[in-house]
Specification:
Length: 215
């Protein structure tokens, strides 16, 4: 976009004019369409035509919107919908300088690994204990700390008797029962289904109709 004031604010990365369908190509697979809200209010059909012209080019397609008009709320709602429907990422800025910084950032991080935004996984022993035990309904992180403090290892917790679990603070009959059920339940439904079939067969022998569901 020759003459666009945004170009003057791109200083941290080299750039050049080229024959491309998007306004700014910030990577081999990333293209940006720049749109001024003020221009959009005068020419609402413009962005739709640009999207149609760009087609499926680029894996990452971005609409960079500069909010340079006071009455931008309705337009932003419309553009958000346009971006979602067409598979675009919508970025907003308040000035040409801010738009330039966004373009620089996209180019600077083109080949950076996603470590900065990747979820940091806690691989500690306590983290694994917490993940496993809190999967039981009603068991929280405080309960996990109590269990580990009293029994030490996961195997000791599994082998603990209901009476020993009931003596712990915060462990009522319901929580103890759920823990024991989680530790002793079969990994597959085969045993449960077999038990159900036996019950149904016995009912049929007695001449009872229908099936009885076992809890």
């Amino acid at each position: 976009q020759k003459g666009n004031p945004v170009i003057g604010h791109i200083r941290q990365v080299p750039w050049e004019y080229g024959d491309i369908k998007c306004d700014y190509q910030v990577g081999a697979t990333a293209g940006v369409l720049y749109l001024s809200i003020r221009y959009h209010l005068l020419h609402p059909e413009y962005i739709h035509q640009r999207i149609a012209d760009l087609g499926g080019n680029y894996n990452l397609r971005i609409i960079l919107v500069q909010c340079d008009a006071d009455n931008h709320t309705a337009a932003m709602k419309e553009l958000t919908k346009v971006a979602l429907v067409n598979g675009y990422t919508l970025m907003t800025c308040w000035s040409a300088q801010e738009a330039g910084r966004y373009l620089e950032s996209y180019k600077l991080y083109e080949r950076k690994p996603p470590d900065l935004i990747r979820e940091r996984v806690d691989d500690s022993y306590m983290a694994h204990m917490t993940s496993a035990l809190t999967s039981v309904r009603g068991v929280n992180k405080t309960d996990v700390t109590t269990l580990v403090s009293n029994f030490g290892s996961f195997s000791s917790i599994v082998l603990a008797s209901p009476a020993a679990l009931s003596n712990l603070p915060g462990f009522g009959d319901k929580k103890v029962r759920r823990l024991r059920e989680a530790f002793t339940a079969p990994f597959t439904l085969q045993a449960r289904n077999k038990k159900r079939k036996v019950a149904v067969g016995e009912a049929e022998k007695r001449g009872e109709s229908g099936e009885r569901v076992l809890n």
